[in-house]
Design goal:
Structural class: alpha/beta
Shape: globular
Strand content: 15-25%
Helix content: 40-55%
Number of strands: 9
Oligomer: single chain
């Protein structure tokens, strides 16, 4: 059977880190839970044989800086549910991405954005996960026996907050809602330093994500 890779990401900027290929089918959640369910169903209905959660992640492990490539071998939901990651495919991805030194460990799927450092610390203490995102557990549930894997890059480190402007500034289609970002900044100008720091972290993380995407196509 010819492999067709179904990729679920949250943002358009993440999807742009993937090379264009007829063998890759991409869907976006816009960082919203109902849309993640619909996007996962779209990938399955579109004939994806392998399902990959791909994009940025929020760090929970305080030792991991922005730009750290994650290749989890275990996935949990915030409710404690465990989801299988295909061991054969995981091994192939790990070999293809070896030069980027992927970190292997536990990953956590959540239904809502986690913005504060105290919340991140609590999740790390409770679950021992390296990082979080809002799509992986949704896609894992939709996999229904298909090979499933997670490839993520740390964006906001465990000790960094997600400012309100970042949370408000995502449209349902995964693009940036600049008017809402600016409106949030006008209401709360004190968040400017955190937003600039996040932008620098995102740029570093997306460089790693793009290189991962290029190597991913070769592996596929």
């Amino acid at each position: 059977m010819t492999r067709r890779l179904g990729v679920l990401a949250g943002l358009r900027s993440e999807a742009r880190c993937l090379p264009g290929s007829p063998s890759i089918l991409v869907a976006l959640s816009g960082a919203r839970r109902p849309a993640a369910d619909a996007a996962a169903a779209f990938l399955v209905a579109g004939g994806a044989t392998h399902l990959l959660s791909f994009g940025l992640a929020g760090g929970l492990d305080p030792t991991l800086p922005p730009g750290t490539l994650l290749l989890p071998d275990r996935l949990l939901g915030a409710d404690g549910a465990a989801y299988p990651i295909d061991p054969v495919w995981h091994a192939g991805l790990r070999a293809a991405l070896e030069a980027l030194r992927p970190v292997v460990g536990r990953h956590l799927g959540v239904d809502e954005p986690i913005a504060g450092t105290a919340e991140k610390a609590g999740l790390f203490a409770r679950h021992g996960a390296l990082a979080i995102d809002m799509e992986s557990h949704v896609l894992a549930r939709a996999a229904a026996g298909r090979p499933f894997a997670v490839l993520r890059v740390v964006c906001d480190a465990a000790g960094e907050i997600l400012p309100p402007a970042a949370l408000a500034g995502v449209k349902p289609d995964g693009s940036t809602d600049l008017p809402r970002v600016l409106a949030s900044l006008l209401r709360h100008p004190g968040q400017v330093p955190a937003l600039l720091r996040l932008a620098r972290s995102a740029k570093a993380a997306e460089r790693v994500l793009a290189e991962s995407g290029r190597r991913l196509l070769a592996e596929a």
